[in-house]
Amino acid sequence: MSDEPDTSRTPSASGAPGPSGGPEPEDIRFFGTTWVDHDGGYALRRVGVAVGSLALAAVGCLALRFGYQGLQIAEIGSFVGVLVVVMFAVCSALAFRRTWESYGKRLDPQTQQSLRSMLAIGFVGALLAYFFRSLIEAPGEKLRRAEYETAREQYERRQARRAGNPKARTKKPKRRN
């Protein structure tokens, strides 16, 4: 047994054949591929993810509160204090919306990269979106399930079109005129 990670099984819902010959489901963080059949402790994982993301959001709010108290102690003025609160509120709202949308459709990677700092500032919103989505399903499950089923259907259609081993076919004699 090796300590090296198993790279023979590359999950892909894009139709890339896996070890079974068909497309493999894509892993979801904290869930792996348990979302496919809802086995392997799927329900327990969902509860754990929901509790964990809510706890992290609460800790994040506590950290923001300490930061805000530091600004008050520094006596920077009410305008900057209000500006900081509005900035975190807006970034959290945008991060929530963006994270929630990412569970329903694939977002443009370049746009995601450009919004990375805004999403980091609004981390509380992203954690809350993760919490609420985990109450419904594994975050991203609906999107990945649709992609996986589409890939399976395409694979099965391609397999149905093939009529056995092409080498086993008898060659038709060529006609000579």
Characterize this entry briefly.
The protein has 177 residues and is mainly alpha-helical.
The end-to-end span amounts to 65 Å
The number of helices is 6
Number of strands: 2
Give, in spatial order, the strands making up the sheet with the most strands. Answer: 1-2
Query: Structural class, from helix and strand content?
Result: mainly alpha
Q: Over all CA atoms, what is the radius of gyration?
A: 25 Å
How helical, in percent, are the residues? 55-70%
* Coarse morphology: elongated
Mean pLDDT: 85
Layout of strands and helices, then pairs:
Elements (H helix, E strand, L loop, with lengths): L11 E6 L5 E2 L17 H32 L4 H25 L6 H6 L1 H6 L1 H14 L4 H21 L16
Antiparallel strand pairs: 1-2
Helix pairs in contact: 1-5, 2-5
Which structural traits does this protein have?
mainly alpha; two-stranded antiparallel ribbon; 6 helices; 2 strands; elongated
Structure description:
- The chain is mainly alpha-helical.
- The protein is built from six helices and two strands; from the N terminus they run ββαααααα.
- It has helices at 42-73, 78-102, 109-114, 116-121, 123-136, 141-161; strands at 12-17, 23-24.
- A two-stranded antiparallel ribbon has the order 1-2.
- Helix 1 (42-73) packs antiparallel against helix 5.
- The longest helix has 32 residues, at 42-73.
- It starts with 11 loop residues before the first strand and ends in a 16-residue tail after the last helix.
